[in-house]
Predict the structure.
Amino acid sequence: MKTKPDFLQLDNAAAEPLYRQIYTRFRSAIADGLLLPDARIPSARALALELGLARGTVEAAYSLLAAEGYVETRGQAGTVVTPALAHHAATAVSKPATRARRAPAGASPSPVQETLNRPFQMGLPALDAFPRKVWARLAARAIRATQADDMVYPPFAGQAQLRAAIATYLQLSRGINCSPSQVFITSGYRNTLELIVRALLQPGDGVWVEDPGFPATGELLKQAGMKLAPVAVDGEGLMVSHGVATAPRARAAIVTPAHQSPLCVSLSLPRRLALLDWATQADAWIVEDDYDGEYRYASRPLPALQSLDRDGRVLYAGTFSKVLFPAVRLAYLVVPEAQVRRFEQTCHTFAAGGPALTQTIVSDFMNEGHFARHIQRMRRLYAERRQIAAEGLNAVLGKHLRIDPQPGGMHLVLRMKGRHTDRALAERMRQDGMAALALSERTLLPHASSALLLAFTNIDTPQRARELGKRILRLL
């Protein structure tokens, strides 16, 4: 290396320091095989003269390379590329190249895509209406009041004040009579379900899942070694008779009684009672996923399924993601009183209840009345936005799509007419910068219906609804 190699072309105007540029270029050259193991590299003094830099700049880069094992110094013999990298290089060369797997046609968007704030984004509340000033004031107060005792590890089941606030709220709003000790704080629905699986189920257990349903539920259960038993859903919710006929010995059922995900229908009272009877007779558990039970527009929110439970078979799962905002990453689980000790033991090992500071802010938000007022405002706002979105989309797309009537929820179900397929249209919408989910992607049973699932929570004007409807029309 008597002359400056091509890979050492530096950019004096770049924000990256020159020593980092030298380090990065040498590391890439070694990884790409331009510099082979045991090859000698210029001395710091020689390279500094060649590049017109201070010697200390080159020495800083060499020190990083040596610290990470890319090069080693041999005294009078100079600096060489580490010989031990030869085995790694040979393995990398001999490893057969693999093609990137293409997603199947109509597949759901990647997790990165799902986090984008796009029109019709499912599961995203109306963030423009969140009381950020109130939240910021409570957060600042909590930070100022932080003492040394508040900086230790938080209680494994959640802070006592938040558990008490949730128990009070559930008793008043959802008809759930529980004590704070029955409430366990988690870091989201997935963490809640993982906690339940670890505490109550064993690999190989059968679990009823609604069909169509929430894909993440099935994915988590399969990863935990459970056997999925898809149970059909109709206009009255989960068809308990279908579950009894196909998987009578299942150990659990995951249901969304308030607004079935994704069809938004409510589980009828006869089926609620039938489901409770099955759980008692089969010694099985019912997980009530009440992800948006607060948002019912036809009447007051229905009492929770758990409020009908007399045999301690129902576990109630709630979340703050839909009523506050997803980034808060807090949820909660109410377990039967007889199972508190078992969940305490499981929580002690596996739980991740969220940062203590966030729990403090949420508990203050609830105890000072902001939470109840916010839900009331959002219920009115969502009723308005649901009507705006439905009317605007129907005015443009009424010949091609039919909007299902529904009592509540945070999204619309648009049934396909004619020969249109939901997966193809959903994929074109995603490519056009909109969020869309196909109903047929959320079912395991045959004869899936075609429909689009579109959230209305952030559609704030009739003009916006019609503009989006015209974009969909062009894609049709």
About this structure: Residues 91-115 have pLDDT under 50 and may be disordered. DSSP finds 16 helices and 15 strands in the chain. The radius of gyration is 29 Å. The longest strand covers residues 227-234.
